From TrEMBL:
Highest taxon in the source lineage: Bacteria
Protein name: Response regulator transcription factor
Residue stretches making up the Response regulatory domain: 2-123
Native organism: Dactylosporangium darangshiense
Record key words, sorted: DNA-binding, Phosphoprotein, Transcription, Transcription regulation
Gene3D superfamilies, per the entry: 3.40.50.2300, Winged helix-like DNA-binding domain superfamily/Winged helix DNA-binding domain (1.10.10.10)
In-chain residues carrying the UniProt-annotated modification 4-aspartylphosphate: D52
Keyword Transcription set for record: yes
Matches recorded under PROSITE patterns: HTH_LUXR_2, RESPONSE_REGULATORY
PANTHER family to which the protein is assigned, alphabetical: TRANSCRIPTIONAL REGULATORY PROTEIN NARL-RELATED, TWO-COMPONENT RESPONSE REGULATOR
Length: 214
């Protein structure tokens, strides 16, 4: 897989590049600011972008906005965004930036768990949505409405959905059948006024229901 990395911290940038190469990926560009990210993606046409949220020149949300702009140009571009802190607004904005490709929002601390980070990279590249478990936990802890309508099991299922887990993976984690998982998902979607349909991104909309109002 061909990857473009954008991170202004040299040590972190090189560390991410090393991890990706360790797992057999090709780092075709590693840059330190948002304009360079946009230029590198347009030139290299990578299979995945990994970018920090805050980068030069303003150190606000330049990396995030560059990623959103690139997804507007190419809705099939998978993007994994890294953040130092939990920013619900940033996560929501990223998840809303197109539905044809994988997208992920992870805290930088997650890079330290090599296997978990590599798994997130693979899942985003494969078209899945991955939200950092700490972000999910904070959202579920803060929301009261319509969270109060969900059963404890539905909350567990929603948290695992937000982490990008498939029905089979959720079933394994909770030691239940896939049929039971599907039933819980249908129930929580209905309670969130998101009735199940043929749109696979209803899972993303379920998470966004919390991100928008947290």
């Amino acid at each position: 897989m061909r990857v473009v990395i954008a991170e202004d911290g040299v040590l972190i940038r090189e560390g991410i590049a090393g991890l990706l190469r360790r797992f057999g990926h090709e780092v075709v560009a590693a840059v330190g600011d948002a304009p360079a990210l946009v230029a590198a993606v347009r030139e290299q046409r990578p299979d995945l972008v990994v970018t920090d949220v805050r980068m030069p020149p303003g150190f606000s949300d330049e990396g995030l906005q560059a990623a959103i702009a690139l997804r507007a140009e190419d809705p099939a571009l998978p993007v994994l965004v890294l953040s130092q802190y939990i920013e619900q607004t940033y996560a929501a904005e990223l998840l809303e930036s197109g539905r044809r490709a994988g997208v992920g929002y992870l805290l930088k601390d997650r890079i330290g768990d090599v296997a978990e980070f590599a798994d997130a990279v693979s899942r985003v590249a494969a078209g899945h949505t991955v939200v950092d478990p700490d972000v999910v936990a904070q959202l579920l802890g803060r929301r009261r409405d319509p969270l109060t309508r969900l059963t404890p099991r539905e909350r567990e299922v929603l948290a695992l959905m937000a982490e990008g887990r498939s029905n089979a993976a959720i079933a394994r984690a909770l030691v239940v059948s896939e049929a039971a998982v599907a039933k819980h998902i249908n129930g929580l979607l209905a309670k969130l006024d998101l009735p199940p349909d043929d749109d696979v991104h209803r899972r993303v909309r379920a998470v966004l229901a919390y991100l928008r109002g947290a």
